[in-house]
Amino acid sequence: MSARPAPSWRPALLGVPAGDGTVRCELCPFRCRLPEGALGSCRVRRNRRGTLETASFSTAVAHLDAIERKPFYHVRPGSRVLTLAPPGCTFRCDYCVNHRLSQYGREDDVPWTGETADPAALVARAAAEGADLALSYSEPGLAPELTLELAELARAERIRVLWKSNGFLTPRAVDLVAPALDAVNIDVKAADEAAHRRLTGASLRPVLDAVERFRAAGVWVEVSTPLVPGCADSPERLGAIARGLAAVDPAMPWHLLRFTPDFRMARALPTPPEQLRRAVDAARERGLRFVYVERALGEAGRSTACPDCGTVLVRRGVWRTLEHRIADGACPGCGAVVPGRWRE
Ligand code: SF4
């Protein structure tokens, strides 16, 4: 195994000692039972002398992004987020465009190039930039300890913390982090268990449960679905996901992400724009009111229209807001409510 500059380890939350030196981790639904010295399936949590430890106080990036890039389209359009990416992911998706961060510990030739994440310094920088904080690119669900420390410091500065997550968390983990989070964009990558397991190596049910549990806790939730070939690329499969999301809340924003070849799927083809157009139509037919495509369908794919009168209320370029007309959470023309966290 090649040497890599590993992140440092710190005590972790959600470890349950079994009394025989093993520790059960209750962060994600794998619930790894770890003997002394063992790493979890995620490779960023371990049992060290009977204590659960995490490698998540490290970040590969610390840069400013438009909030639209996460993507969040119903959260303070035009605002900026200081984005962080701790190592690791619970999933092993073959298409992952961020596999050099997410697959840390699994791919021997991938060194960790991140730096120690200092919550106080990161919050101070976000405050100086007038930005919120976002954890993205890898799996923030593996960094509840960092998230809680950031949120604790950020609260005094009126800075919010947001996640782009795979949602693969235990109910206990959701309850732990929800009070620290303003918004979460969760990937729902498949319509059924078999396809989700094939793509990610994990069950779909906990992800759907997390969507509902975060919402019930008052966290703003948007959902993303990458159109991965053979998994979520047909109108039938996407329609089934849309039906499930509409049953939770037809006003929940849904982002359809164009598949781009990468990692072990470098030879697959990108999603044709026509396929994305059909997916948008299928979603609207199932009742979803806010369906978005970032690039392939131009400005129309990124705009927010009033669900009642059809007036375009938010116009977006790629990763920026061009016009924002929502007033007091409603359409200024007909008064229809447009759910979101639109202003400060
Ligand atoms: S977070 Fe990691 S160690 Fe904990 S249960 Fe999940 S895979 Fe296992």
TrEMBL record:
This is AmmeMemoRadiSam system radical SAM enzyme. Its cofactor is [4Fe-4S] cluster. The keyword Membrane does not apply. Residues 74-289 form the Radical SAM core domain. SMART domains: Elp3. InterPro entries: Aldolase_TIM, AmmeMemoSam_rS, Elp3/MiaA/NifB-like_rSAM, Organic_radical-activating, Pyrv-formate_lyase-activ_prd, rSAM, rSAM_sf. Keywords: 4Fe-4S, Iron, Iron-sulfur, Metal-binding, S-adenosyl-L-methionine.
